[in-house]
Amino acid sequence: MALSSNDFCPCGSGDKIRFCCGKHIVKELDKLSSAIEGEQYIATLKQVDGLIEEKGNLACLLAIKGIALMATGQIDAAQENALEFLDVEPENSTAWAQRAITSADEPHKVMEYVQKCLEHSSTEQIPQLIMPAIQGVIDALFASGNLFAAFSHLTLASAISRGNQQAVMRMFEFVQNPDYPLLLKQRLPLPSIAEDASYGDGYEEITELSRRGAWFLALDKTEDLLEENKDDQILMKAVAVLNTYLGQDEGADAWRDYLATIDSSSDEAVEAEAYAQMLENQSNPDVQPINRVLYYVADLDEVQERLVASDQARLVPSPGFSNEDPDNPPPRAIFVLTDRPQPQSGAELTLEQVPKGIASIYLFGKQTDREARIEVVPSSIGGEQTASDILTDIADGKLGKSDSTEEISQVPVLTDSMAWNPVFPEDTPQDKIQELSLEHRTASLTNIFPKIKLAALGGMTPEEASVDFDGRIKLEACLLIIESNLQCRDHNATLDDVRESLNLNRFEAVDPSDVDLNQVPDIRLARYDVSKLNTQQLGDVYQRCYFVGFRRGFIHAAEEIVKRDEKPEHVNLSDVYAALLDSRDSLEGRLELVELAKAEITVQGESPAAWLLREIPLRLMNQEAQTASDLIRKLENDHINEPGIAEQLYGLLVQMGVMNPDGTRAVPSGGVSDPSEGGIWTPGSDSNSNPESEGSGLWIPD
To answer: Cα dist. 214→82, 135, 219, 220 in Å?
Structure first.
C-alpha cells in the first residue's frame, strides 16, 4: 500500500508526514517503505545515504537507516546512526528506541534509554521499535538481577502488545514460577488521591505517564509535587511505588519514609518494610562465598577406588558432561560426600539418620599441561574444612595438601543456613522423602531460623529483633516474605508456630464483608474467610491468586467454589478441579475429585476427555488396570478427534510404557509383538485385541 502524506511520519514523532520532516520527500519515503517491506535492506541503505547527502539528516531518513542497519547486523553503524538521530531530534522516541536496541551499556543505562523512548512517545502512535527495545531491556534486567524493573517492563510489554500471544505467555510463565517472590509479582498500583486534592491536575498527569510506562518522568514530577506538599502520605507512597517499578536502590528509603507516616502495626506498614528489604537485597544481597578447594594427586585411580568403597561417598551416575572442548575434558567421575555413612535402607529412616551432602567431589585425569586433580566444592558456606577432613580420611594419606582455594559462587546466608542437602538411600519411598522433607522444613524454621543473624534485621537474629522496637517490624516483614514464598508451593505452609515462638501474633481469618478486595494486595488474599465472600468476590480471589501462582490463595478459593451450588461465571471449572487435584494427599481423594470433576464438566456441556486422561494413571496406581484400559478405549472411541487429545493420549501411553516413542506397541519382558497387529499403533486404530478377551487389560511395567 502506497505511503501518502496523511500517513504517520516514519520518524516516530506521531505527526502525519505532511506536518513533519518528510513532507517534501513523500515519494521517496514511499519507495523506501516499499524496499523495507520487501526486505531489500542493502538497496534501502544506498537510497537513504543518497537522500541524506542531498536533503540532510532528516529524522525520517535516519529512522529508516537505523532499521536497515540493524536488519543487516551492522550494530556499530546502527549505534552511530542512533547518536546522530538524537543530535537532530533529542526528544524523538524512535531515536531513543534505536539507542536502546544498539547499546552495549549496562542494563540500568539501557533502561534509561527505553524510558526516554516511552517518555517521548505519543498515545496516538506507538513507535515501531518500542517492543524490541523493551524486550531487550527486560532480558538485560533479568540477567543483571534487577527483577523489579524487569517484571515492571515485562508487564508493560504485555499491555502494549495488546494480547500478543508470545508476550502474554512470557508474562504468565514468569508469574507462575514459584521461584520468584510473590511480593514481586503482585499488583502494585499508584495510590489514589482525594477528589479535592490541591495537586489533582499534576497527579493526573503522573498517573497517565505511569500508565504508559514513563516511570522516570513520572517519578521526577511526583518528587516535585512532594517538594511543594511536604510529608504528603499519598505522594510519599507514589514515590516508593515508582522507585519499585524501576528497581531503584532509593526505593528502600522511600518505602521507609512512607512507613513512618502510617500505623506501624498495620499490614500496609509490614508490606512497605518488606518492599524495602527486597529492594535492598536486590542491590546488596546478604550473601557469603562458596570456595572450591583444589588438590593435585599422584595416584588418582587409588583415590577413586577408595571413594567407591567408602560409605560416605556416593558416585553420581552419568553426570552428562559434554566433551566438546578437548583442552578441558569433563571430570572422570563425580561423588557426593556425606556427613555420615549411608544407611542400609531408607524405608524406616528418621530425620536424624538422613545423611547430608556436604560437598561435591570432581575427579579430573591428567592433562597435557596439568597433573591429575580433585576439586572439592562444599555444599555450604565455610564447609571447606569439614569436607576436606572427610575426604582426607577416605583417601588415607593419598590426597596431600590443598594446592589452592578459589571463590566460585555467592549464596544467600538465610538459604544456606536452612539448606538440608539430603542423600537418601536408593530404596527410600517417595512418601517417606516428602514426610522427612516437611519435618526438616518445620524443624529448621522453628529451631534454626530464630538464631541466624540477618542483614535484613540490621545484623540481629530473629530472636533479638522480636524484642527490639525497631527490629520487630523488620522481623514481621521478613516472615511475610518467607511465608508467602512458601505458600506459592505449599498451600498448607504457615509460619504461625514460628511467630508464636517469637511472641508475634498469628494470622487469623479475616471477615471480608466490609472490605473492598480491589484495594487489597494479592499477598493478603489468602487471609480472608472464603466462606463469607460473595460469588463474584470468590471468583475474583481465585483468578487473582491463580494468575500470580499464590497456591494457598487459589486452593482455598477453589475448595469453596467446589462446595457451592452457585459457581462464579467467569471461572473455568475444569481449571478449578485441576488446581485441587494436586492438593489431595491420598489416591482415594484424587479419584473422588476426578469423579466430581467429570460429573460437573459433563453437566456444563464440556468434554470430559482431559479428565479421562488424568484418571488413567491414577487408576493404574490404584491397581485398576482394566479400568484404565477401558478409559483408553473410551478416549479412542468418543474423543480422539477432539483437539490435542490424540497427542496427549499418545504421550501418556509412552510415559506409562504401553507404547514406544516410534508408535509401536511396547512388549512385556520376554514377549514378542504379533505381526498381525499391524506394527504401528496409533490412538483410534482398529488393531486392538478383542475387548472381551483376557488380554485386554493394560500391561504395566514391573
So the answer is: 20, 16, 9, 10
pLDDT at 546: 94
The percentage of the chain sitting over the pLDDT mark of 70, rounded to a whole number, equals: 92
Q: What is the mean pLDDT of residues 199-208?
A: 95
- CATH code of the domain containing 361: 3.30.310
The residue out of 98, 124, 150 marking a domain boundary is: 150
- Greatest alpha-carbon span in the chain: 88
Q: Note down the domain range covering 345.
A: 287-418
Q: How many helices (H) and strands (E) does the chain have?
A: 29, 6
Q: Minimal CA–CA distance to 609: which of 579, 589, 632, 627?
A: 632
Beta pairing class for 357-364 and 373-378: antiparallel
Listed in sequence order, the DSSP H helices in 229-381 are: 233-245, 250-259, 267-283, 300-309
Position 319 scores a pLDDT of 64
Report the 10 Å Cβ neighbour count for 302.
13
- Write the CATH number for 76: 1.25.40.10
Report, in angstroms and rounded to the nearest whole number, the Rg of the chain calculated over CA atoms. 31
Q: How far apart are CA 611 and CA 21, in angstroms?
A: 61
Q: What is the pLDDT of residues 360-417, one digit of tens each?
A: 999 999 887 788 999 999 999 999 999 999 999 999 888 877 888 899 999 999 999 9
Residue 23 has which C-alpha cell? 513532507
374, β-bridge pairs: 295, 363
What's the predicted TM-score (pTM) here? 0.87
The span from the CA of 83 to the CA of 79, in Å, is 6
